[in-house]
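Encode chain A's predicted structure.
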Amino acid sequence: MRWLILALALLAGPAQAVQPDEVLADPVLEARARELSQGLRCLVCRNENIDESNADLARDLRILVRERLVAGDSDSEVIAYLVDRYGEYVLLKPTATGENLILWIAGPAMLLVALASAAVYLRRRRSAPDVAPAPLSDDERARLDEILKE
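Encoded structure for chain A:
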């Protein structure tokens, strides 16, 4: 019995937060709304899409997406409307153009700079002459012997 429950739980997949009163009567529009919702970030939950989030703002965004689709907007027009209203943060996969290009390039560029710095440091360290420490004076040796006896 436990195996049956576990199998059903695994096959059920993630729970959707879409309420029955949000679902559109037209299955084609509803499928488009679900697809768009998968790529939109819940502004409250951070890295959860609005289709899976139970937050009130996510519900409002789901309704807004459906209203725009019913009004006749294309998918790209709905996305553009939401980006204009909430910024590119609403997209789970932000574009790699314009101002975001700096963010896309910064990580790999910083990694390359770090690797180059490490290579230069190691090369200089390897080519530096070995400097032996100066021997202890008689006073220092006597003081060290005294400390070690304690």
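The chain has two domains: 10-90, 96-126.
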